[in-house]
Write a structure and sequence with these properties.
The structure is a homodimer.
Chain A (H helix, E strand, L loop, with lengths): L1 E5 L3 E6 L2 E6 L12 E5 L2 H8 L4 E3 L15 H8 L4 E6 L2 E8 L2 E9 L1 H11 L20 H18 L5 E4 L3 H4 L7 E2 L3 H13 L3
C-alpha cells in the first residue's frame, strides 16, 4: 500500500515499510503514477490532487460526525488509530488530541519549534536562542535560554501530563520532544496507521 | 515620588497616585524636568536616559547577586516587592517568576497576546482568530478558535498553578488574564511597589 500524509511543509510518504519526505514547494505529485492514498491539510495541494485520478483522498471515507468541521485531517487520522492516549503531533504546529476509551474528547493547537523560536526573537533580539530540550523541567530557570525553553516546553508538558493518560509522540519533531516526554511512546507512523485503519474499514483497497 | 517603568512598547509613569502611559516611539524623555526614578528594559532608551541628570536609574541600587545577569529589571522589581507568589507579568512578553518565602526561585518567559496571535497566523491563515479569554479551561476544545486559545492559555495556566502559590497578575494585559486566573490578585502597580521598596532601602530619596 502506498500512502502519503501532506502537511504545510512536506509530503510524507510510506511505501510498504519505507518512509520518506518531499518538500511541498518542489515536489510534483503528477510524477507518481501508482495508486496512492493520501490525506492533506494544505489547501493549494488539495486542489492539485483532486485532478489526479490515482491520488485517492482518504478523508472521504471518514465518519466526520465525531470531529469538528475545521479539524485537520491528519489529526483525525491519528485519533482514529488511538484508543486511549494524549497524541502529541509535533510539526510546524503541535497538535494535542485526547482520546479516552475510544472517544475523542477534543484537542488544542500549540506553536511548533521553528515558529515559536521566531516568536521569541520577535519579542526581543535578546531572546534569540535555540530551545534547550535537555532542560531539567523540575528546576525554575535562572538564565535567558532556559527561561524561553521552559516557557515553550514546560507549559506544554504541564498541560499534557495533567490528563493522566499514556502519551504518544508523532510528527517531524517527535524525537526532540521525546527528551521532554520521557515516558511517551514514539510512533512516527501513527497517521499512516490511522489511514490504514480507515481504508480497511471502508473496504476500498 | 515620580516613577517610570519603561518596557519595549511604552513608558509607564506613576506620579503620586496617577498612572499613565506614553509610546516609546513618540515620547521625548528630556521634556520631563522633575526628578524621576526609572527602570528600563529598552536598550535604546537606556542610552538616552543615561545622559539626562534628572532621570535616576533605580537598577543601580539593587543587590543583583540574587538574580541572573540577563534578567529584565522590571522582573527584578516585581520580585523585590513579593514575599510568596507566582508573579505573572502579562505584557509584550509574559514573564512568570516564582518567589517562595522571600527567595527568588527562578522564572520563565512566555509570548504575550499580540505576538502569540501572530504566531498562529504564521502557522496557517486558517488559525487567524483572536484568543477567547472566556474559554472553559476544563473542557477540551472542539473548534479552531478554542483550540488555539486553549493552546495559548491553558498550557500557561497549568504550569502556573502547579507551583501551588498565590498568583499576582500585573502588566498591560493583566485584566484579560484575570478571566483565566480567576483567583489571582490583580496588582497593576507591582513594579512601582518594587521600585519604591528599593529606593527606600537604598535611602536615596
Amino acid at each position: 500500500m502506498f500512502l502519503c500524509d501532506i502537511g504545510n511543509t512536506s509530503y510524507h510518504f510510506l511505501k510498504d515499510i519505507n518512509s520518506y519526505k518531499k518538500d511541498v514547494n518542489s515536489f510534483e505529485p503528477s510524477n507518481i503514477k501508482d495508486k496512492i492514498y493520501y490525506v492533506c491539510v494544505n489547501e493549494n495541494i488539495s486542489q492539485k490532487l483532486e485532478k489526479l485520478d490515482n491520488w485517492i483522498d482518504v478523508s472521504e471515507f471518514i465518519d466526520k460526525s465525531k470531529y469538528y468541521k475545521t479539524m485537520g485531517i491528519d489529526r483525525i487520522c491519528a485519533v482514529e488509530a488511538t484508543k486511549n492516549a494524549v497524541i502529541v503531533d509535533a510539526g510546524s504546529a503541535i497538535t494535542v488530541d485526547v482520546v479516552k476509551n475510544g472517544e475523542f474528547l477534543g484537542g488544542f493547537i500549540y506553536p511548533g519549534v521553528r515558529v515559536m523560536k521566531k516568536t521569541y526573537t520577535n519579542i526581543s533580539s535578546v531572546l534569540d536562542y535555540s530551545f534547550n530540550f535537555d532542560l531539567d523541567l523540575d528546576i525554575m530557570p535562572k538564565n535567558s535560554q532556559d527561561a524561553i525553553s521552559y516557557g515553550f516546553l514546560k507549559t506544554l508538558y504541564s498541560e499534557v501530563i495533567s490528563h493522566d493518560l499514556p502519551i504518544i509522540l508523532t510528527g517531524g519533531d517527535a524525537q526532540e520532544f521525546k527528551k521532554i516526554f520521557k515516558d511517551a511512546k514514539l510512533d512516527e507512523n501513527l497517521i499512516f496507521d490511522g489511514m490504514k485503519y480507515i481504508i480497511k474499514k471502508a473496504d476500498i483497497c
